[in-house]
Amino acid sequence: MYWRLCIWAVALILLGSREAACHSMSESVSVVLHQTNITRLTAKVIHAAGYHLHRVEHLSIMDAPKLDHIVVDDLTKMPNLKSLFITQAPRLHRVSPLPPLPELRTFIITTSGLVEVPNLSHVHDKKNNNSLAYLQAIDLEGNHIKRLSPHALRVRADQVSLNYNLLEEVPAFAFKNAQISKLSFRGNTKLKHIDENAFASNLLLRQLDLSNTAITSLPTAGLQNLETLRIEKTPSLKYIPSIYEFQSLQKAYLTHHFHCCAFHFPERHNPTRHKLYETQIAIMQSKCASASQQKKPVARRKKRSLAPLKIVMPQRKNDTTDSLEEDLSTATTSEEYDANLMDEYFSDSGSWEDEDDQGEFHEPVNNTLGAGFAIISAECGNFSISPRKVECFPAPDALNPCEDVMGWSWLRASVWFVITAAVVGNVAVLLVLLTNHTEITVPRFLMCHLAFSDLCTGLYLFMLAVVDLRSYGEFFNYAYDWQYGVGCKIAGFLSVFSGQLSVITLTIVTLERWFAITYAIYLERRISLSAAAKIMMGGWLYSFLMAGLPLVGVSDYSSTSICLPVESKDVGDAVYQGSIFIVSALAWVTIVVCYVQIYRSLGGGESYGGRGAAAAAERRIANKMALLIGTDLLCWAPVAFFGITALAGVPLVDVSHGKVLLVFFYPLNACANPFLYAILTKQYRRDLITLIARTGHCTWLVEKYKLAATPPPTAHTNPSAPAQLMPLVDSVTYQRSQSQCKDSSEVPL
């Protein structure tokens, strides 16, 4: 009896240990090899680490500096393997094509040395596995991948990430027969070319990320079902395809504001495609109308709503209207793609997320397709169209609205008057002053600099006006070439340079007048020509510096269509813009103070006998200068006020209204200066007649001016004989010598 009990006890113990062993055999195991020195990943290595191969579901290799080879055939010895994770393996350059792994769901090799994408096309072969099997995540981020092997990613996958590699191009049919929902190329800064058929034959792509790349164009083949498009921080992309190329697009995260304008105004972005769309709508209306007429008796008995019809636009691009009818004949209406099929093999795998995407790109797959171009609902003959709206970022804002360069028609017309006056007036001043052979004086020297700076302002406006005419009605199609091209940089440079040089020159002119009028009897207290040249050399250097800083990254001329550095992104931009306003403000304060002193010094001139006439002449000069400076101040003050408020973070006007100040009012001084300074003065007229007399043309005008300039006959002249006319140059020289006796402040006014 005792032995029988012992036998039963041993049997029970053996049976319990066997059941425990079987239970332990069924438990899954996660293998983690951290900071390992293995050179080859084999089944033997895993087994030597104390793991049973049939129990391994998750295999992780982290920080393996010597790993350079994976024996992929040994992976088949782990039939329950669901995830393979390898990171920080710099010597792992290539992985052989993976064999069928029925349970594999996650394949991740990051921050390693891969130079090409492993071939994963046989992981879920149909003959070895369920046809609906798929990979939740393929992550090859942070490697050195330079090329995509043909058919390497012919897989079913929820998410595929090739972020931050060295890809230079995506070849044609790189994803042929693949079914990938989310695809990301973020951070491939060398990626410049994507073939037109790169995404062709992949009908399930829902989200695409091409941010921070160097692509210049975006193909549309294979993007029919795309719902989310990300092309952020990619300034090289010039042109965004028409919204009619994306039948299901719902959200777009782009780089430039004007690309979103293309989605908001498709009729101006691509008129040919828009016309094709409208024609298709008209055909559908006609078909629905004829159908309602045929079913009219039935409709009286019972109302019946037709199923929604989705317009499927032909994918071919038509450059001429001759092929329009041919495309329409091939276009057909179809029901929406049965996206519910995705539920059979795409799960909500939201655990794999990119930090830069902030969880946006790797959200669970959205299986609801967009509404296409329009949903046409026909009920009892009533026809309605619900256009599709796309959420686009960055949306047009105050600095980059969806409008032309000039914005308003009246501004487009009036700016040409400003340009004409500025260019013609300043060219005329420079022509007369530079060709006159008389002695160069300080006022004449300063006038040349002022005329040149104002001429640059006229050239800036001319460049804007020409671009506005060329891109009228569809500026966002030309915005990239203009704002990021050489033309906008030249225009912005001219604007800032001319504005700063003009302010400095006017300040020096005012100081020179203050010295000349306040200290009229002290000839040594004058600004000499050499001193004026040195001061103006400093003004030129300062103007060049302030105009050149945006070219090297301090602020930016490309932030707006009018090419002015008005956008403040960081502290450096704010300091730059603040410096311009402060220097300009100090210059204008100096001008105002000097003219107050000038008026005070001339106030008692008439009470000093012989100085009364001189004081009256000086007062007239001061009044003319005050008119000139007052005009400039009225033009500058509104711009300064609204600019300071914008710099303080509380802008009171947007760029659309600011253009009236920056393009119209502010340049008014450029066209007013040559007239107030020179053209309307007697001195300029004398210089002009001298120039005309030297050419030998318009003799009648020269004789008329000589006659007007001849002094009346006196007792010392012969009344019966015509008076001896003094040569024009001598007369001018004589007048100047006489004026120097009573007033040494000669001004070309």
UniProtKB/TrEMBL annotation:
Gene3D superfamilies: Rhodopsin 7-helix transmembrane proteins (1.20.1070.10), Ribonuclease Inhibitor (3.80.10.10). Keywords: Cell membrane, G-protein coupled receptor, Leucine-rich repeat, Membrane, Receptor, Repeat, Signal, Transducer, Transmembrane, Transmembrane helix. It holds the Pfam family 7tm_1. One of its GO terms (cellular component) is plasma membrane. Belongs to the G-protein coupled receptor 1 family. This is G-protein coupled receptors family 1 profile domain-containing protein. GO terms for biological process: adenylate cyclase-activating G protein-coupled receptor signaling pathway; hormone-mediated signaling pathway. CDD domains: 7tmA_Glyco_hormone_R. It is a multi-pass membrane protein. The chain crosses the membrane at residues 410-434, 446-467, 501-523, 535-554, 574-596, 626-648, 660-680. PROSITE patterns: G_PROTEIN_RECEP_F1_1, G_PROTEIN_RECEP_F1_2. It comes from Spodoptera littoralis. GO terms for molecular function: G protein-coupled peptide receptor activity; protein-hormone receptor activity. It is found in: Cell membrane. Residues 425-677 form the G-protein coupled receptors family 1 profile domain. Its main location: membrane. Residues 1-20 form the signal peptide.
